[in-house]
Amino acid sequence: MIYTDTRDKTVAVDFKTAVLNGMNAESGGLYIPTSFPKIDRSYIERTPEPSFREIAFAMAKPYVEGEIPDADLESIIQDAYPFLPQIVPIEKVTYILELFHGPTCAFKDFGARFMARVMSYFNRGADDNLHILVATSGDTGSAVGSAFHNVPGIDVTILFPDGKISPLQEKQLTTFDGNVRALKVKGTFDDCQKLVKTAFTDLELRKKFRLSSANSINISRLLPQSFYYMYSSLVVKNRIPHDSKIDDASIITIVPSGNFGNLTSGLIAREMGAPIKGFVAATNANHTVPDWIATGDYRARESQATLSNAMDVGAPSNYERIISMYSLEQVRQLFASYWTDDAGTMDAIKKCNSKTGYIIDPHGAIGWKAWYDMRNGDMEKLIGGFKGDIDKPGLTPSIPSWAGDVVQGKAVGIVLETAHPSKFGATVQEAVGRSPSMPSSLERVMRLKDNSIPMTKDYESFKSWLVENL
Ligand SMILES: *Cc1c(COP(=O)(O)O)cnc(C)c1O
């Protein structure tokens, strides 16, 4: 596969270069495959559907062809995924796609574990270390730290915004030792992301060290996230005749979004043939993308702290990939969008629990509420000409091609549950009156020592730290 760049279409690199560079230092753009090959129809039409790992292999193969032989790809996938996505029906037309069964209990394990194994594959035999820099708004750091911990030849530096992530998230990313360390930055997630991006475009630094990224800007994190979109849409397609019995139902995937890496992976799965009719981009008060869809005017802004902190992104990196794949008009046909504030998030957790019995985390809750409101009058109002107000929480006034299917009860939703609710135990407890039980992997981490290093958001101090410590 040849990879090009969102800013410079004359760029043509192989998978290894795209993975190890992370982003293109010269243009500042992001790597993107030049095509999204359709997977064989026999996978899509098979009942029962192929296994998750079988799908993962078939989807990854064209992107690594000629660079990773089949047998090695097979072991990368087996080793990356000892856990699986789980699909839980909670209402007649609603499935929760639980993506939190990996070691750090959030969906980022899917991308990070594949990426770590691919990087270590490409780094075999090299004599100097590869340095991974990663900015996190919550769950990326721990997923990346956990995926790379003790991988020989690779060092990881995690940057996180001081005081803006949950105490448990902080424990999860500050308690590594050896090759993984965490910098506690006085600033926002966007400041952390800027430090990382500046380091990557700093040619002096790049001459000294082999740097690579592990954010959702890295293509080797984005591609594997497409596996569970394909898998879940095939599972749901096969279940519809037994569950809701809707003929020819449209499958809509609802994605709680921050940096829009997860949603971009969904777009890749759809391009490759996943039977997904449309997407809902669900955000918190950081509603840069919903506003863009409504007005056509893209305005990145400062991020605001919310209860769904892993989505606190005011300038989502993957916007650049989305607009390199689609025109605004195509995005409007494909996407509905929705945002809510903290009060709406609390209400969503509570309502999801009272209507369905399911305990959902603050990120997934926004997705569930988007789907709920859309089916219960809000999409119908838009179709009827309601103008809406983009500054108020709710469904964005923009009508996708599949809106009528939702109104006529001909659509089924897959809501991505991106983290285990116990990672946000206090919020969930306040909303539903009891705290979700904690997986043992999370209980263990709470007892470990915090090894984080304080850092300012000033680039020069960050750079000197890197020069002295890498
Ligand atoms: C990272 C994260 C998100 C946002 O995903 P993006 O790919 O950045 O859009 C949503 N929920 C949780 C729990 C996350 O960790």
Overview of this protein structure:
The chain is α/β, with parallel strands linked by helices. It is built from 20 helices and 14 strands. The protein has helices at 15-21, 41-45, 52-64, 70-80, 108-123, 139-148, 167-174, 189-200, 203-208, 219-239, 261-271, 288-295, 319-325, 328-334, 342-356, 362-383, 403-407, 425-432, 440-445, 459-469; strands spanning 3-5, 31-33, 86-91, 94-98, 130-135, 154-161, 180-185, 210-213, 250-256, 278-283, 335-339, 394-395, 411-417, 453-455. The strands form three sheets. A seven-stranded mixed sheet has the order 3-4-13-9-10-11-12, with helices on both faces. Strands 8-5-6-7-14 form a five-stranded parallel sheet. A two-stranded antiparallel sheet has the order 1-2. Helix 11 links the parallel strand 9 and strand 10. Helix 3 runs antiparallel to helix 10 (219-239), helix 4 packs across helix 5 (108-123) and helix 5 crosses helix 10. The longest helix has 22 residues, at 362-383. The protein is globular and about 60 Å long. It starts with a strand and ends with a helix. The mean pLDDT is 94. Pyridoxal-5'-phosphate binds at residues 106, 108, 138-139, 216, 256-262, 310-311, 363, 418-419.
